[in-house]
Amino acid sequence: MHEFENAVSLDELRMQRVIDAIALASAGEIELALKHLESVEQDTFGVIEEALRVFLSELSEAKQKSAQALDELAASKRELETQLRTIQRQEVAIRELSVPIIDVWQGILTLPLVGLLDSMRAVEVTERLLARVADDSDVEWVILDLTGVTVVDTMTAQHLVKLAQAVRLLGASCIVTGLGGHVAETLVTIGVSLDELRPMRSLREGLRFCLSRRKATGLAPTTASELSRSFALEPVSRLEGESSALRPRGS
Q1: Do the Cβ atoms of 111 and 125 come closer than 8 Å?
Q2: Exposed, middle or buried by CB within 10 Å (0-12, 13-18, 19+), for 170?
Q3: What span, in angstroms and rounded, lies between the C-alpha atoms of 240 and 39?
Q4: Backbone phi, then psi, for 182, in 5-degree steps?
Q5: How far is CA 187 from CA 113, 139, 147, 155, 157, in A?
Q6: Which of 22, 23, 49, 184 is deepest in the core (most CB within 10 A)?
Q7: What is the pLDDT along the chain (251 residues), one digit of tens a residue?
Q8: What confidence tens digit (pLDDT) does each residue in 115-174 have?
Q9: DSSP per position, 26-48
Q10: Which residues on adjacent β-strands are paired with residue 110?
Q11: Paired sense of beta strands 141-152 and 173-177, if any
């Protein structure tokens, strides 16, 4: 009778140990749960204890692998975010370079465009140029130089016409220079007229036109300081091949 009671008492202790191990495992303390099952007796109940120990061991290993995978995923996410920020900075730099607005003379801006001028880029040009004209009340003329542009589609040409109209609404005038033969032929083929932009052959001619209009309104460079600014433009004129065209007449 006493031996039977001792056996029941022993089984209750082992059962409580298994219950405690399961409770710890459910709380995430798998390592502590495994310590409760370190010693397993070789009997019928021991088979259950051993099966639970194996299960908890595999669960612990899976948890470690999951944590490692999450760490690697977090590291990859940080790396992707860094690369994305770099790409965004590069895109900003490219946009800045693709729309270079240059003060070639007091009150005269030029926008030399190079490469493909598609609709998306035309919108970018319009936004930046209008913002610049709106911020600078001294701007009277804007020269769009398309010498480096090889392709212009219908939507882009319409954007240029609308750009000229918007510039006029801001109190300035807009002309286009440097139309290549292929671009001119394309514009004629698609039936788009750039008459509102006063198309001219070269940037030199466009700048000379703007200066003549300024002179006609009494704004041509006459003082010593203005003349010095005009001479500072000689490197630009040499790029055009005719430096004399940029020098004030009568100097």
Answers
A1: yes
A2: middle
A3: 93
A4: -65, -40
A5: 17, 28, 15, 11, 8
A6: 49
A7: 445 444 444 567 777 878 778 888 777 787 777 777 777 777 777 777 777 878 888 788 888 888 889 999 999 999 999 999 988 888 776 666 667 888 888 899 998 888 777 777 888 888 889 999 999 888 999 999 988 887 777 787 888 888 888 999 999 999 999 988 888 887 788 777 777 778 888 999 999 999 998 877 665 543 434 434 543 444 444 434 443 444 444 44
A8: 777 777 888 888 889 999 999 888 999 999 988 887 777 787 888 888 888 999 999 999
A9: HTT-HHHHHHTTSS--SSHHHHH
A10: 102, 143
A11: parallel
Cβ(246)–Cβ(236) below 8 Å: yes
Q: What's the rounded Cα separation, in Å, for the pair 195 and 171?
A: 19
Whole-model pTM above 0.70?
A: no
14, amino acid identity: R
Residue 110 Ramachandran class (φ > 0 left, ψ -120 to 50 alpha, else beta): beta
Secondary structure letter of residue 104 according to DSSP: E
Residue 188 — φ and ψ, nearest 5°? -65, -40
Cα separation of 120 and 143, whole Å? 20
Q: Supply the DSSP string of 144-168, one letter for each residue.
A: EEEEEEEEE-HHHHHHHHHHHHHHH
For residue 244, what is the DSSP state? Answer: G
* 8, amino acid identity: V
Angle (deg, nearest 10), helices 154-169 and 181-190: 90
187 with 157: CB under 8 angstroms? yes
Whole-angstrom distance, CA of residue 200 vs CA of residue 128: 23
Give counts: helices (H), strands (E), the chain.
9, 4
**CA–CA gap between residue 2 and residue 112 (Å, rounded):** 105
